[in-house]
Design brief:
single chain, alpha/beta, 6-stranded mixed sheet, 11 helices
Length: 299
């Protein structure tokens, strides 16, 4: 089991590098991240976009990227399509969104004929160091699915379990988060939590232990769980936090970054390969972590 983000970075840096194709790479932040990622042995890159502009930006920024292949492409849609094509043809291991709208990037990724669709639901997973200082927390879904129903929550959960399994968590403990730790008919998400727990108990959700509903405090704090009399292997010791909707997930993701000042990484899963989709407000280190985390999903 990987015990920290630092360990995840170390493991990836000592493996053969994966190649990332960047859609619309003419962006200072992207070039800076690529420069550092190559130096840290985290990944190789192919840049897609206006070749002249990218070349000039590399020279102006004094980035050591002269050996990176640059594929000339026109507008944003063409950059996204070409990037996906590179992955589809096996010339790159995964795509990364550069300076273009998410909708444009995802349209190419999810194209029924030329894209990277699979039979799974596409979801996002935030990864951060565990509050205890040992292990990781996987929080999902903070960015993709707005108000998932029970079946969608099951798929989102299974995506997170898949990532955790890939990172050495043989049987991750999943806490289904709501505002409270008791089932309440006035709060449908608490009923979903109880159902997901029962589905896991009956073998409908595998390779993990699911319990809920939990409030955040008694999902991650053993002391809080003890004070409230909540028992079970997940209580106060969760690896995966399944949020009820994007509002809870988005706020939790940003609170970890801005209030707790903790490092995070983000993975988009559910397509045939992981997608590297970082926010412009993410720090360079958080973007490097996202690249490393995504690499665990590429065989």
């Amino acid at each position: 089991m990987i015990k920290s983000l630092d360990e995840a970075l170390y493991i990836v840096s000592n493996r053969p590098k994966k190649t990332i194709a960047v859609a619309q790479a003419a962006d200072k932040d992207i070039l800076q991240v690529a420069d550092i990622a190559i130096k840290k042995n985290l990944a190789d890159f192919i840049f897609v976009g206006n070749k002249k502009t990218i070349t000039n930006m590399i020279e102006e920024g004094n980035y050591e990227l002269s050996n990176v292949e640059i594929i000339d492409a026109g507008n944003e849609a063409q950059c996204a399509a070409k990037t996906v094509e590179l992955v589809k043809k096996g010339m790159a291991d995964m795509p990364m969104k550069g300076l273009l709208p998410t909708a444009t990037f995802m349209k190419a990724v999810l194209d029924k004929e030329k894209g990277l669709r699979s039979d799974k639901l596409v979801s996002q997973i935030t990864v951060t160091d565990n509050i205890s200082g040992k292990g990781l927390n996987f929080i999902t879904d903070c960015a993709m699915n707005i108000s998932p129903d029970l079946n969608a929550k099951k798929e989102i959960l299974q995506n997170a379990v898949y990532l955790a399994n890939k990172m050495g968590f043989e049987c991750p403990k999943v806490a289904v988060l709501t505002a409270v730790e008791t089932v309440n008919q006035a709060m449908p998400e608490t009923i979903d939590a109880a159902i997901l727990s029962k589905m896991n108990e009956r073998g409908q959700i595998k390779n993990c232990i699911v319990d809920g509903p939990f409030a955040l405090d008694n999902a991650i704090s053993a002391e809080s769980a003890m004070h409230k009399g909540i028992k079970g292997v997940v209580a106060g010791n969760a690896d995966i936090l399944l949020v009820s909707d994007i509002r809870m997930g988005n706020v939790l993701h940003k609170a970890i970054t801005y209030y707790a000042d903790k490092r995070i990484g983000s993975v988009i899963i559910g397509t045939t390969v992981p997608l590297v989709m970082t926010s412009r407000s993410d720090s360079v280190e958080d973007k490097l972590i996202s690249i490393a985390l995504s690499s665990f999903l590429v065989d």
